[in-house]
Specification:
It is built from nine helices and 14 strands. The protein is α/β, with parallel strands linked by helices. The protein is globular.
Length: about 350
């Protein structure tokens, strides 16, 4: 695999590194694009690292840029600016031809097990696509490897010639897992892989992903809305809001000491019952709606909805950094981070921005 053009400066245990990553989409009017005018700022200046062998959870409200970020990492989208470093090479500027060898090392599992499989093709052909595209195996050798993959993810290899409609939702997602695993990639991006499944089936798929990670040394980026699922599978969690990372920490540290008001609001929505029968956490209800990514607020993008916002928040964008007293890998983008025991739901200050 040839080196990319620009040098990189990440430690050896970093598989994916993002530096000031930006992805913007031009806004169309009457079916025509208007270049240089309005743009959707889907991802706006993200800095992030993913270590080899870990699972990084990525959470946030719908439309915050999670899936766009994932597609930029895998180069399904070309970044507007910034750098995507994969396994020590800067792949953000590579042409499709030069990017091809890296495609073997990164794969995606998509949210909808019904929509991500072609209903007119047989399962053996779908799972065998990576072998065909990269010219790795043909004929009986390809069939044998596909059947081995089916057995590996818990499918009956004898069902090689069936169509996707003949499988249940959980089985279809296993087909997607087998397809992603075919070339033994280093990175798999799981984009809401269990959200369309029943709870009991979710557990089966999560356990399968865990076992495969252990057996093959995989690195996962796990995107989900369900924070309880993210907590179960992730080593670290990054929280996104309106195109930016607002907090990142090890999973248990984030749940024990959430520092960003937005993270606190997300966690407050998880039903928790204490042993004494009382409510486990006070629900934080955010005012207003998520601002438009076409015209995001100045300063901190969360300040129009934040119960702690002060004048500085609307004027100065907070950097993503480690605050005094936090662990070295716990970073938050907030001028006034939440303190332990602070009740945001009851916050009422004359300095709060309206």
């Amino acid at each position: 695999m040839g080196s990319a053009v620009r040098p990189v400066e990440y430690e050896a245990d970093v598989l994916v590194g993002l530096k000031d990553l930006v992805k913007r989409f031009p806004v169309s009017s009457a079916g025509r694009l208007r270049p240089g005018r309005d743009e959707v700022r889907a991802v706006d200046g993200v800095n992030l690292t993913v270590r080899r062998g870990e699972t990084l959870g990525l959470v946030g409200e719908t439309g915050c840029g999670k899936s766009t970020l994932a597609r930029c990492i895998t180069r399904l989208y070309d970044p507007t600016s910034g750098r995507v470093v994969f396994d020590g090479d800067d792949i953000s500027i590579l042409s499709r031809r030069r990017l091809r060898p890296y495609r073997l090392q990164m794969q995606m599992i998509f949210q909808d097990p019904y929509g991500s499989l072609n209903p007119r093709r047989r399962v053996g052909s779908i799972i065998g696509d990576p072998f065909a595209i990269h010219g790795i195996a043909v004929g009986e050798k390809r069939k044998r490897r596909v059947q081995e993959l089916m057995a590996l993810v818990g499918l009956n290899p004898e069902h090689y010639n069936r169509f996707p409609a003949e499988f249940s939702g959980g089985q279809r997602q296993r087909i997607g897992v087998a397809r992603a695993l075919a070339l033994r990639p280093k990175l798999i991006v799981c984009d809401e892989p269990v959200s369309a499944l029943d709870v009991s089936i979710q557990a089966q798929i999560i356990n399968l992903l865990h076992d495969l990670q252990h057996d093959f040394g995989l690195t996962y980026i796990f995107i989900a809305h369900d924070l309880s699922v993210v907590r179960q599978v992730s080593d670290r969690i990054a929280v996104m809001y309106l195109g930016k990372i607002v907090e990142i920490a090890e999973t248990e540290e984030l749940f024990a000491r959430p520092r960003h008001p937005y993270t606190n609001a997300l966690l407050s929505a998880i039903p928790v019952i204490e042993e004494n029968g009382g409510a486990g956490r006070q629900r934080i209800v955010l005012r207003g709606d998520v601002p438009s990514p076409i015209d995001p607020p100045a300063g901190c993008r969360f300040h129009p909805r934040c119960p702690k916002a002060q004048r500085r928040c609307g004027e100065e964008e907070p950097p993503l950094e480690v605050k005094l007293g936090d662990q070295a890998d716990h970073s938050v983008a907030c001028h006034y981070p939440v303190q332990v025991g602070e009740e945001l739901g009851r916050k009422s200050s004359p300095d709060v921005l309206q």
